[in-house]
Specification:
Largest sheet: 8 strands, parallel, barrel
Strand order of the largest sheet: 1-2-3-4-5-6-7-10
CATH class: Alpha Beta
Order of helices and strands: EHEHEHEHEHEHHEEHHEHEH
Protein name: Inosose dehydratase
GO molecular function: myo-inosose-2 dehydratase activity
Helix content: 25-40%
Organism: Streptomyces avidinii
Number of helices: 11
Shape: globular
Distance between the termini: 21 Å
EC number: 4.2.1.44
Radius of gyration: 18 Å
Number of domains: 1
Pfam families: AP_endonuc_2
Strand content: 15-25%
Structural class: alpha/beta
CATH architecture: Alpha-Beta Barrel
């Protein structure tokens, strides 16, 4: 007889529009926002992220009403930034960030997920800039991210959690370590996405242990190693890789999530662990059964 894993008492499980095939504020191929809210609650989740700004209602009163009647709460908002370009992009960046931070705060959340800009277009594969930053760009990335962390904390009371992401400059274990070494832990934490980290050659359990004091948030996803090998061999951009199914339903891929969650529990801090199975675009009836099975699987890992 197998025993149940210990309850993950410090881990709060949620999901996100991404798991319903949502990548953009408005796209006819995406699940309508009302259906997403209905189905994410039906699947057994209590926490959600905002997703792309403008997908869910941006009026805090309306969004509060819509989430509350379904028993949902917001864990974080998400912003995209190109801070390695330095002060020249600050004004436009802040205009974008401040709108999302205000809604995130109004919904009672405490985190803002920060995703670096892509070095190649995630649809066409067009190379937008060099995939390797210069030393000067690394300095700008570190200093401007600290500035963002300070401003978001001071003005909105939110903590930024930077999300290493495929096809960005914060991707591999080496680049993640370099970024963390260059930034102030008081201002910049990490959103460790298990799927993206594996996609870029990393081991999430090792990352949690090595960067223990910097782990502020988790995204849970898995990659299909067979498809990933094809993607790497072909040099495929992230968007087409997702279309091919590189991000797969747990527990069929890597990394194994039970050891990741156990390592996160050992940090002895409260953490959100938000499921994000990239699958844009996808048929409208596909996400809910996957979400139900994934929630049941995570319960079997101790995530109540």
């Amino acid at each position: 007889m197998t025993s149940s894993p210990p309850a993950l008492t410090r881990i709060r499980i949620g999901s996100a529009p991404d798991s319903w095939g949502v990548w953009f504020p408005d796209d006819p191929r995406q699940t309508p926002w009302e259906r997403f809210l209905d189905e994410v609650a039906d699947a057994g989740y209590e926490w959600i992220e905002l997703g792309p700004y403008g997908y869910l209602p941006t009026d805090p009163a309306r969004l509060t009403e819509e989430t509350a009647k379904r028993g949902l709460r917001v864990s974080a908002g998400t912003v995209f930034t190109g801070l390695h370009h330095g002060p020249a992009v600050w004004e436009d960046t802040w205009e974008h960030v401040s709108r999302i931070a205000a809604l995130t705060r109004a919904m009672g959340a405490a985190h803002l997920v920060v995703i670096p800009s892509f070095w190649r277009d995630d649809k066409t594969g067009e190379v937008l800039e060099d995939r390797t930053l210069t030393p000067a760009q690394w300095r700008e990335l570190a200093s401007q991210t600290e500035r963002l962390g300070r401003e978001v904390l001071d003005r909105y009371g939110l903590r930024i959690v930077v999300h290493p992401h495929a096809d960005t400059h914060i991707d591999t274990p080496e680049n993640v370590a370099r970024f963390l070494d260059a930034t102030d832990p008081a201002l910049v934490s990490l959103c460790l996405d298990t799927g993206h980290y594996a996609y870029c050659g990393g081991d999430s359990v090792r990352a949690i242990e090595a960067f223990a004091e910097r782990i502020g948030y988790l995204h849970l996803k898995q990659v299909d190693p067979r498809i990933l090998a094809e993607v790497v061999a072909e040099g495929l951009p992230f968007g087409p890789a997702v279309g091919r199914g590189v991000m797969c339903e747990p527990p069929s891929g890597v990394p194994a999530l039970e050891p990741v969650l156990a390592a996160a529990q050992r940090l002895d801090v409260d953490l959100f662990a938000i499921v994000e199975q990239d699958m844009y675009p996808c048929p409208p009836d596909r996400p809910l059964p996957i979400a139900r099975r994934t929630r049941a699987y995570l319960r079997s890992c101790g995530a109540r």
